[in-house]
Amino acid sequence: MKKQFANHLLCLQHEYKDVRLSLVPLHIVNDNECIEGFLQCSHCETIYPIIEGVAIVVKNFSEYIQTRTSSYGKWLLKTRTDKMKGFLREASKYLKLSQLGKDRYEEDGVWYAPYRWTHYDHESTDRLLSSLRWRLKPNELYNRVIHGLNPKMDGMALDMGCSFGYSTLTLSRKFAFTIGIDLSFSFIKEARKRMYEYRQGNVEFCVADSLLTPFSSRKFDSVIVFNMINLIDASKLLDTIHSLLKPLGYIIIADPFDFNYEPQPQIRFDSQSFRELLKNSRFEVDDKTDMKESYIPWILKVSERTYLFYFVDFIRARKISKHKTG
Ligand SMILES: C[S@@+](CC[C@H](N)C(=O)[O-])C[C@H]1O[C@@H](n2cnc3c(N)ncnc32)[C@H](O)[C@@H]1O
Ligand SMILES: [Zn+2]
Fold first, then answer.
1. Which ligand number lies closest to the CA of residue 213?
2. Could you give the CA distance from residue 318 to residue 102 in angstroms, rounded to a whole number?
C-alpha cells in the first residue's frame, strides 16, 4: 500500500463518526510502498493488517480468513515480522473449524482463472476468439462503458468488486484519483502488480466490503459496479453508494443480471426491475440508458472447452437527494 493511501481510510467500527486510521509500517520499500504493517485506530485500538502490500480493511478479520485458509497459511509462512505473525496467530483463535470454506474468487477458487483471462490474459489466437467473425475482446465492455464517461480530472472514482483491476486502471485515466476494492485478497494483490507495471500513479487498491467501506460519505464523483448485482444485497448496495457519492455524483452499472450460478440468490433483478430499484433508491436514471437496454459482449473463459458469453446491460444514474414526487 502506498503510504499516503492511509489518509483515505476510516475505521469501520464507528457508524456515526469518521475516525481516521494511521499507518504503523513494519516493512517499507522504495520509501513509499508499505509491504507489511498495520492501519490503526486511535479511538478503539482496532488494527487492520497490510500483507504483501495489500491493506485488508474488513470489520472482522477472523471471519475474513474463515474462507481463505490457503491464503492465511501462505501469510503465516511469508510474512517477515514477528508482530504480523503474532497478529495472524491471534486471529486464528477465533476460527470456527466446522465453517471453514473456500472463496470462489481467491487464487485456489473456480473464478480466479476466468477473470484473469478476461481482464488480461486472452490472446487473439484463442480458439473461440479466432473463430468469431468479428474481432471481439473479452474485456471491451470496460473500455466501452468507461470511454463514454466525461473525464473529471479533479474527481475521485471508486470501482467496487474490481477483481484484477483492468476496469480500475482504465477508469483512472478519467479521474484525478481512483480506488478499486474487492473482497478477494488474490485479486487485489494482482491488481496492484498491474498498477505498478502500467506505472499508474493515481490509483490504489485495497480489500474491502462494498457494503461496509472504509471511506467517508460524499467522497466520490463516480462509483462503478461491474457484474456484481447477483452477489450482493442490491438495495443495501445502492444505499451505500448513495451515501458515498457527492451530490449529483454518478453510479455506473454494467451487468448481465445472471442469477443462475448463485446457490442462494438474492432478489433476482432484470434490466427493468433494476432500473426501478435505482429510482426507488434516490437515483435518476440517465435518459439515454433508461430508454434503451444495452447489449455489450463480455466473455469469461471457464475452461479450455467452456466459455460464458454474456450481453451486458449498461445503466448510468445520478444521485438525487430526495425522492421525486408526482
Ligand atoms: C462477478 S465478479 C466481477 C468482477 C469485476 N467487476 C469484473 O467485471 O470483471 C464479482 C467480484 O465482486 C467481488 N465481491 C463479491 N462480493 C463483494 C463485496 N461484498 N464487496 C467487495 N467485493 C465483492 C468478488 O470477489 C469478485 O471479484
Ligand atoms: Zn476505531
1. 1
2. 37
- Which H helix or E strand runs over 284? strand 283-285
Ligand 1 atom having least distance to the Cα of 139: 9
Residues with a beta carbon under 5 angstroms from ion ligand 2:
11, 13, 41, 43-44, 46
DSSP result, 90-139: HHHTT--GGG--B-TTSTTSTTHHHHHIIIII--TTSHHHHHSSS---TT
Cβ atoms of residues 147 and 141 within 8 Å: no
Phi, psi of 166 (to 5 degrees): -60, -45
Could you read off the pLDDT of 270-302 as tens digits, one per residue? 999 999 999 999 999 998 888 889 999 999 999
Closest protein CA for atom 9 of ligand 1: 163
SS3 state at 18 = coil
299: helix, coil or strand? strand
CA end-to-end span of the chain: 48
pLDDT (tens digit per residue) in 197-238:
999 899 999 999 999 999 999 999 999 999 999 999 999 999
Spans of all domains in the chain: 3-99, 112-319
Residues flanking ligand 1, CB < 6 Å: 105, 115, 161-163, 181-184, 187, 209-211, 226-228, 231-232
Counting DSSP H helices and E strands in the chain, the numbers are: 11, 12
- Please choose, from the candidates 149, 150, 145, the residue with its C-alpha nearest in 3D space to the C-alpha of residue 166: 145
Exposure string for 295-312, b = 16+ CB within 10 A, e = fewer: ebbbbbbeeeeebeebeb
Contact, 168 vs 180, CB < 8 A?
A: yes
**Whether domain 112-319 has CATH 3.40.50.150:** yes
